[in-house]
Design goal:
420 residues, mainly alpha, two-stranded parallel sheet, 70% helix, 2% strand, globular
């Protein structure tokens, strides 16, 4: 049996700590950032509201364009909206639930690899997450629990959420093939195919192409080298962005990037040394995705594409740090110190997130969009200009708030217009 399928469980108290941290983190994020729903969120939310209303998974009725890069996320939001829930509240709640799932599944994966303290640390650190990453890490936890069919279902849902999931599925398949785990391949592969193939068939028939339009609209704006550089240097900022403004600067960011890089490689080294092949498929999948992103050279604002990769980098770094400490910091006394550190981290996170929320309220992202766009949408409705077609750079806000038809200059939800 593969070495990383053995039960390297933490104490029951560690699982309770994971649940507590995940719930507290989700609640803190909800009450501090519920007002901040940005452009891409509204694009997906408009798809969800139209699906809930029976108009289909479309941005604009009658236009069969796949403009959301997270189809399963839109379908998930549509269910409570169809039952009468407020769309923006649904988005807030489901995001925070996905955040809690990400914190728990990532921490649980580290616990299964024999580092329960690192698992709790991951849950504390990850206060910005996504449904895709939570599904991804959850599927790996199920693989280590030998629940291959459920793992395939979660991985399939991750693929429907974001197509980067197929790269992770390929990496996991290679790991299973190398271990000749044919029953696992059969059970997990059939489950994954049962989730993804119907969606691909429907998307191909419905939209003419299962590839989301933003995949092409966001590509090619920066060089491959520049994207690689920014992805590495922005690693700590993407993970710990609520701390920005508390002495965070370029030298500190560079030092954190180097720290995470060194310990991330140490974590991968531990996976190789212990022959944890299945767990090692996770950073391998991240490497596959990163190679594709570099090849297509996406724009500098494609933060969400690299966010799951940065979460995996953090997971590997914590695993490497735990391996460095070994058993030198173990025993009841150090366990109490760990509990105190977790409690302190949770307490510090509350004012940190509140301060980050206050800073966001003074930025263009909030003042120029969260305030100006609703007023502009009211004007369009009152003057009945929403019955015309509006040309805009940010279709999510205007289309959702005014119910106007839009032409998206960036080509995210409508094919890029040609100006003559």
């Amino acid at each position: 049996m593969p070495s990383d399928l053995t039960h390297a469980e933490g104490l029951p108290s560690n699982r309770v700590a994971l649940i507590l941290v995940a719930l507290v983190g989700a609640l803190v994020s909800f009450f501090t950032f519920a007002d901040f729903l940005f452009e891409d969120s509204y694009i997906t939310l408009r798809y969800a509201t139209h699906l809930a209303a029976g108009r289909g998974l479309v941005f604009q009725p009658g236009e069969m364009v796949l403009g959301t890069s997270a189809p399963f996320w839109a379908m998930l939001l549509a269910l409570p909206i169809a039952l009468g829930a407020h769309p923006e509240v649904v988005l807030d709640v489901t995001f925070c639930a996905a955040l809690a799932g990400l914190a728990y599944s990532g921490g649980r994966l580290l616990q299964r690899l024999g580092s329960p303290g690192a698992g709790v640390a991951f849950a504390v650190a990850v206060f910005l997450g996504a449904l895709f990453t939570g599904l991804l890490l959850g599927s790996w936890c199920l693989v280590l629990d030998r629940r291959y069919a459920l793992s395939g279902i979660l991985l399939g849902l991750a693929c429907v959420t974001r197509y980067e999931g197929y790269a992770f599925a390929a990496a996991l398949a290679l790991a299973l093939i190398s271990q000749r785990a044919w029953p696992a391949i059969r059970a997990g592969g059939l489950a994954l195919a049962g989730v993804t193939l119907p969606w691909l068939g429907v998307a191909w028939h419905y939209y003419g192409n299962p590839i989301p339009l933003p995949a092409g609209a966001k590509a090619g704006h920066v060089s491959s080298l520049r994207y690689f550089e920014r992805s590495y240097l922005d690693l700590p900022h993407d993970l710990f962005w609520p701390t920005a403004g508390f002495g965070y600067s370029y030298p500190i960011g560079l030092a954190l990037s180097v720290f995470l890089g060194i310990f991330g490689l140490a974590g991968v080294r531990r996976l190789i040394r212990t022959r944890a092949t299945l767990a090692g498929a996770l950073p391998l999948g991240a490497l596959f995705v990163f190679a594709v992103l570099i090849a297509f050279a996406p724009g500098p604002l494609c933060t969400w594409h690299r966010a799951p990769l940065h979460c995996i980098a953090l997971l590997c770094a914590l695993l490497g740090f735990a391996d460095l400490l070994g058993h030198r910091w173990s025993g009841p006394r150090w366990r109490k110190v760990g509990v105190a550190a977790v409690a302190a981290g949770l307490l510090v996170s509350i004012p940190t997130h509140l301060a980050a929320s206050a800073r966001l309220r003074n930025t263009f992202q909030y003042v120029g969009r969260e305030i100006a766009y609703p007023e502009l949408a009211d004007f369009l409705r009152q003057t009945k200009l929403n019955e015309t077609t509006v040309l805009t750079w940010e279709p999510g806000y205007l289309a959702f708030m005014s119910d106007a038809r839009v032409i998206d200059v960036a080509g995210l939800v409508t094919p890029a217009p040609a100006f003559t």
